[in-house]
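Structure tokens please, single chain.
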Amino acid sequence: MNIKPNIGIVNALIRITLGLTFLSWSTAKMVKWPWKDSYFLVAICSAMKVAEGIVRYCPMTAFLQKCQGMTKESDSVSTNTDSKTTDEMVPYNPT
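Here you go.
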């Protein structure tokens, strides 16, 4: 499985910064109130964002790119069956 980076440098730095910020916030809250599960969920999501920033690969962005490639636009309907119409799809690029 060949995984290529699909997010930019600035996006990765923002994900790392905000991920570490929310991770430290949720960890501090979990020390005070360990029985609340919502802080644990925030910590897991924040850790995932930090990992996405380090690796520069976002699975949701890859999913959106794949889904956008599968959709076909049928805006131009040709009345002549002999002519071939090609619809060029521009790939989703968040950078």
